[in-house]
Design brief:
The chain is an all-alpha fold. It has 2 domains: about 15-50; about 85-220, no CATH class. It is about 70% helix and about 0% strand. The chain has helices at about 15-30, 35-45, 50, 60-80, 90-105, 105-115, 120-125, 130-145, 160-180, 185-200, 205-220. The longest helix has 21 residues, at about 60-80.
């Protein structure tokens, strides 16, 4: 982003990433969301038309932020040569570890965004695009595994797994938001135990993992 004399916001035609950065900076610096696209555009010396080329509203921009978080995590994982050789369990663990590292790098914004409204469901509306991405990611893992099975009866339900994965993510997101441990170590433990549990549920051996997860959550709750 280039700056000119007399106006620190003056720049060439913005792109999607720059608009997102400007929005996140505004929220963090002012502890509130912009009142209008007109005012936001004017303050950043761009036109409304330039904003609307990428987003139809601030709601669309907020959803795009979460999509970017997901895309960044996937990009980081796929840069590893070992990732393609991982089992589904290892891939999913890697995804959640990486995704929550991305969230941690943007923790101040994420906490604001998810606590902005007094109604929790209102805050979750911005996760619609992310929900689709996470569910599709889960489906792709199971679909690839099912293709390797010679009998269809041994295949796993992609829809059920993807829905369970989304619920698991929401649990981990809330856990991470409330986590006060150094380096969010408790979240890492919660990720490992919860992902192991969801896979064991699908492998029909859930009892030991569920008891283990329950003990961990109870311990964290009573700290």
């Amino acid at each position: 982003m280039t700056k000119s004399k007399g106006n620190s916001k003056v720049k060439t035609k913005p792109n999607e990433d720059e608009l997102i950065a400007l929005y996140m900076d505004f929220v963090l610096e002012n502890e509130k969301t912009p009142k209008s696209v007109f005012k936001f555009s004017k303050d950043n010396n761009i036109t409304e038309q330039e904003f609307y080329q990428f987003f139809g509203s601030f709601d669309g921009l907020r959803r795009a932020i979460w999509n970017k978080f997901f895309d960044n995590a996937i990009s980081v994982m796929e840069q590893s040569k070992e990732y393609a050789k991982f089992s589904n369990r290892e891939k999913l663990l890697t995804f959640f570890y990486t995704f929550f590292e991305v969230l941690t790098a943007n923790r101040s914004y994420v906490l604001y965004a998810l606590n902005e409204n007094s109604t929790p469901l209102k805050n979750l509306e911005q996760l619609k695009g992310l929900r689709s991405r996470i569910k599709d990611y889960g489906k792709s893992l199971i679909a690839a595994e099912n293709q390797e099975k010679s009998l269809k009866l041994l295949g796993k339900n992609e829809m059920l797994f993807s829905e369970g994965l989304w619920v698991q993510f929401l649990f981990l997101l809330k856990f991470w938001m409330d986590d006060n441990s150094a380096g969010f170590e408790s979240t890492d433990v919660a990720i490992e135990k919860s992902i192991n549990t969801i896979f064991d549920v699908f492998d029909n051996t859930p009892l030991e993992r569920i008891v283990d997860l329950g003990k961990f959550l109870w311990k964290e709750r009573t700290k």
